[in-house]
Design a protein that fits this description.
This protein is of the alpha/beta class. It is built from ten helices and six strands, in the order βαααααβαβαβαβαβα. α1 packs across α4 and α8 packs parallel to α9.
Length: 238
């Protein structure tokens, strides 16, 4: 494994501590509409574009459930939770150091997030990172979401990167699979939600996914405890 010539970042749970915020929105919605929710199910939906999240909820609870209404409520609750945090989402440990490292060494990088661009921009502005990612691909710019590699291939194209020499940083199973499918080097950084609450009453989860650290890590080429560890690893490869 030689030096990486480019880096692609996921957003939620990878550069921002936003998955906890989003999961709280799911918990509020589950209690309001009466369906079960736990970290494993939520993690199985992470990294996917909107229509695939809806499909995942229908698969989990049944085609007869009005998951579209649930999703609209979830989105409103995401905003409510963020406002309760003074509009902040929180930067992940090591993010600023890694961005500085890449900029100092002229290593191109891009953000590839399944979220919509307006939300991406809101998060970046809230964390004073408006100009930190000059290249961004969002979920509305692709036909197929993760685990399809389209979003990473499009981001790589923006910065002229060869997937074979590009590191993809991800926290979700869908994202790791997408990176692998595109011929990138996938790197897993676990965003631990396992200590958060579950809703155990209401519509049952018909197909309970396995969402845990070891399952995702087994698919990833590399694994780090945090973004802070990526700098040292890349420097060793130089």
């Amino acid at each position: 494994m030689g030096p990486f010539q480019a880096v692609l970042f996921d957003m939620d749970g990878l550069i921002f501590d936003s998955e906890r915020m989003c999961y709280r929105a799911y918990l509020r919605t589950a209690r309001a509409f009466g369906f079960q929710m736990n970290p494993a199910l939520y993690m199985s939906l992470c990294g996917k574009i909107e229509r695939e999240v809806v499909a995942g909820l229908k698969h989990a609870f049944g085609e007869d459930k009005d998951v579209v209404t649930w999703r609209e409520y979830i989105k409103k609750q995401k905003t409510a939770v963020r406002m309760e945090q003074n509009g902040r989402v929180g930067k992940k440990k090591g993010l600023l150091e890694l961005l500085s490292y890449l900029q100092e060494r002229n290593i191109p990088y891009a953000l590839a997030s399944s979220s919509v661009r307006t939300l991406i921009d809101e998060y970046l502005e809230a964390e004073y990172l408006t100009h930190a990612f000059p290249y961004i691909v969002d979920g509305t710019q692709v036909e197929n979401g993760k685990p399809d590699p389209e979003i990473f291939l499009k981001a790589a194209g923006l910065i002229g990167a060869d997937p074979a020499n590009t590191l993809v940083l991800e926290d979700s199973y869908a994202g790791i699979c997408a990176a692998n499918a595109g011929g990138f080097t996938s790197a897993f950084i676990f965003d631990d939600l396992t200590n958060m609450d579950s809703v155990t009453e209401g519509y049952p989860i018909l197909d309970q996914p396995v969402g845990n650290r070891e399952k995702i890590r087994s698919e990833a080429v590399l694994s780090f405890d945090s973004l802070a560890d990526v700098v040292g690893f890349m420097e060793v490869l130089r």
